[in-house]
Amino acid sequence: MIPRIQLAHLPTPIEPMLRLSHLLGGPQLLVKRDDQTGLALGGNKTRKLEFLAADALAEGANMLISAGAVQSNHCRQVAAVAARLGMRCKLVLFGTPPEIAEGNFLLYKLFNAEVIMVDRSQRDSRLQEVFEEARSQGEKPYLIPYGGSNALGAIAYAFAFEEMLGQQCFPDWIVFPSSSGGTQAGLILGAKRAGFTGRILGISVDEPQAALQDHVLPLAESASLLLGDPLRFSREEVLVNADFNQLGYAVMGESEKEAILLFARQEGLLLDPVYTGRAAAGLITLVRAGFFKQDEKVLFWHTGGTPALFAQKYSQVLAS
Ligand SMILES: *Cc1c(COP(=O)(O)O)cnc(C)c1O
Question: 13: cis peptide before it, omega within 30°?
Fold first, then answer.
């Protein structure tokens, strides 16, 4: 058994999106509510942290250190877990600090995480330095990689896939945002272990297609080793669509805005401007283009991120 602590509210619900399906005149659309994992406004990182935090505890850590962008959902969840476990937390964030504490940035502060702002070019070196500094000060820091996406984090999504099957949900397609790759690696691993024949399509929010595939594939293989059942994957099994990231990471364009408004107004569902907004824009575009068959069932895996809606950079555009 791989050590795991309970942080998430599981299973997360699966709901039909009847009005959106009808409006688009497309396939049957469903949503898996991993925006409702329960920890500090939820999201896909909660599942990964059940394993990563268990590992930190097993190592006797008293501090969690991680890194991400200014509005990082991952860092928000790490900070919440640290608080919950009575550990300290340091976050190395790249980008421009907001003038007022807003969105995820506000939440880091509420969880009492120490924020270290760096230039994007220095993120790796500063992260390592912060870790070494803490160690030399006698702390027992535990380093959580970007997005919690190492093999240990990824297995969480192999279990999440099993959870979905246990809910008697057998979609033809699963569509979701893919970035640091742990979610996709875990889902394709879970699918392969179950002999699932549907397709799992990651919408890349930043990387080009080949780069993301090259990242996800070895991650899925190393995660399979952790589960004691080594599997090999081919590139064809890592479906990535990178047609929707032209504006660059964390830039909300017209199509993301349209997707956020459609989900809000048709389904009362909140997406986020960086990840699920972009993946939903991709989904909507594919539906309109007739990519899916009419009788197919398409599950949109909602990975969370909604606190970023409340960052001014996005809220001002969304409200206008
Ligand atoms: C981190 C994140 C993702 C991407 O998941 P990866 O496992 O890093 O690919 C998607 N959506 C949201 C809201 C996230 O915070």
Answer: no
